[in-house]
Amino acid sequence: MKIVDLSHLMNVHTPGWVGYAGNKMYYAQNLQTKMIVAQRIDTALHVGTHIDGAMHGTDGMGDMASYPLDYLVGPGAVVDVSEHMDDWAVITPEMIEKAPVEVKEGDILIIHTGWHRYWEGQPQQDLVRYFCMHPGGGIELLDWMIQKKIKWFGIDCGSGDHAMNTSIRHMRPDLAARFEKKVGKSCDEFFGEYTYTHKKSGREVTENIFPFHSYAFQEGLIHAENVGGDIEKMLNQRAVIGAFPWRYEGLEACPCRIVCFQGMDESVEAVGDVAKAIMGPRRIASGVSTGGPDGR
Predict the structure, then answer these.
(1) Exposed, middle or buried by CB within 10 Å (0-12, 13-18, 19+), for 200?
(2) How many CA atoms lie within 13 A of 147 on its CB side?
(3) Which is nearest to 122 in space by CA: 23, 43, 9, 235?
(4) Which three-class secondary structure state does DSSP give residue 71?
(5) Cβ neighbours of residue 265 closer than 8 Å, sequence gap 6 or more
(6) Residue 281's pLDDT is what?
(7) What is the SS3 assignment for 127?
């Protein structure tokens, strides 16, 4: 079996998403005074390579402890679309389907745009370009993923959504103006609105940003952001892919390791209540657990 790590190194310089704090690390005690070193870290949950739970973008579902291991770990593909990418490029289903690797129904999907080369500490580091000018998909790609029953996807960019289909368009109007000049339309016109039915209340929701958060999350399609590490060793290859966040109840997201395992059977089964995210009496009614991919 071969193991390839798709996770970025974290340290005090690791940037959070636009507007989010980065990391603080300090010594709570040291060898000189206590004979044991102990440290503390203060971090946002969206720093470095991390996975978003559905709770991050929708109501009442999908905290980190609710995802069983056979949801977080399973067969999948790393698809290279970098040849089609430039600043603010739009990723389409056709780009993924034409790649020389099969994406099967129910897979975990990792999308390689090449944007990881602009990450902190890389020779081509450019954090404005990384966070504010990265590619992403639109509703067409989201619908394709849902129809394909993709378990979750990861991307080597700052967001699972296109940079200009997030609140960055409001935080950086100068860059939004450059994007609009490039495409010849306003952001609102280019991306359009999308409508879905709220799973809990039945309300019809119409939004114009964050479809891969608001709409996708309530459908059980979550994603990992800032994928990187040795991703280039896995381009257009299949593997068993795993994301390993903390098993922490109530977290809406979490830094994690994302790893590809090659040379093993693609069949994955969660064994035991812990692996299946069955939480015990607090979270069980009439013998039915509230754990699972959608947190319901």
Answers:
(1) exposed
(2) 7
(3) 9
(4) helix
(5) none
(6) 67
(7) helix
- Name 25's bridge partners: 41
Q: What percentage of the chain carries pLDDT values higher than 90?
A: 91
Collapsed DSSP state (helix, strand, coil) of residue 156 = coil
Q: Contact 73/152 with Cβ under 8 angstroms?
A: no
Q: For residue 287, what pLDDT band results from cuts at 50, 70 and 90?
A: very low
Q: Which of 127, 117, 125 is nearest to 47 (CA)?
A: 127
Q: What is the mean pLDDT of the chain?
A: 94
Q: Give the CA-trace dihedral at 90, 118, 50, 266, to 10 degrees.
A: 70
Tell me the domains of the chain and their CATH numbers: 2-289 (3.50.30.50)
Token pair 């940037």 in the structure block, residue: 15
- β-pairing verdict for 2-5 and 257-262: antiparallel
| H-only helix segments in 42-113 | 69-72, 93-97
pLDDT score for 118: 98
In which band, very low, low, confident or very high, does the pLDDT at 293 lie, cut at 50, 70 and 90? low
- pTM of the full structure: 0.93
Q: Which residues pair with 33 in a beta bridge?
A: none
Phi/psi zone of residue 168: left (φ > 0), alpha (ψ -120 to 50 degrees), beta?
A: alpha
Contacts of residue 119, Cβ cutoff 8 Å, sequence gap at least 6: 8, 125, 130, 226, 228
Q: Which of 113, 163, 166 has the alpha carbon at shortest distance from 134?
A: 163
Tens of pLDDT along 141-176?
999 999 999 999 999 999 999 999 999 999 999 999
What single letter denotes the amino acid at residue 139? I
Q: Which residues make beta-bridge pairs with 5? A: 259
